[in-house]
Input
Amino acid sequence: MNQGQASSGILYQRFDRYHRILHAVMMASFLGLAFTGLPLLFRDTDWAAVVARLEGGFSAAGVLHRIFAVLLITCFTLHVMRLLHRLYVQKDLGVLWGPESMVPQPRDVVEMIRHLRWFLRLGPRPVFDHFTYWEKFDYWAVFWGMGIIGGSGLMLWFPSFFSWLLPGSLFNIALLIHREEALLAVGFIFTIHFFNSHLRPEKFPMDTVIFTGRVTHEELREERPAEFERLVREGRLAELEVALQPAWVKTAGRTGGTVAVALGLTFVVLIVYALLF
Ligand code: HEM
Output
């Protein structure tokens, strides 16, 4: 909604409690993994020694890293299990295709081209539906990244188990992949994902939708007009209406989000500093 525009006070559900809790735990565990993994990677810098000291030393950082890894892997597993449940138990094919699916579809390419034209003032703003092409991009970057960083991390954690299955040379490669993917994930989440979600002009300084799960009537109509019209056409809009949550939910979301953005950007600065100097 444009700043200063009056709101009707009507709210619709965008993310349910399951999604919100999973996202919060994933966010905390990813920050924890970055906080404990980066000092190990840059252990010869001054700042890494300071951060590791805060964590109780380098070996304590390694223990904490494994605890956060269990949390992140649990989140990922629960997410995949829910998708499988929707698909196989609820027979909801909308997971695989259609406006509420995360699977990239031809309309995403069309919307991306239209968006680029809109940026260049060569055409109108595209009419987005439930998920935009950049939200799908962020989602898949994290989804595949999880497989790569989680798989290589488990190899580092349980080398004797994996050495039954894999040749020894792969362990050096796993370490290299874990390091590079860690830098890519931290760089991507703390710049592109933060910009797309919170720092772009329409949302600055923070979009609280992932914490509250709710969007206003005006936000839905202006930002996702195709979804708004589809829900009206299908007579489903009223079903999504939800009550306002207690104020603390939004305050907690804003506080948690601000801490995450501030910590994330600090990590990016520290990485650039470590790589340059
Ligand atoms: C999700 C599953 C993950 C698992 C199972 C995992 C596991 C591990 C293990 C066992 C180590 C060796 C720790 C030690 O030396 O004591 C490690 C190192 C590291 N991890 Fe992870 N990790 C995971 C995710 C992540 C993520 C998301 C990041 C980045 C945000 C990350 C960044 C790092 C870094 C930078 C190192 C240091 C590598 C080095 O020694 O140079 N890890 N990880």
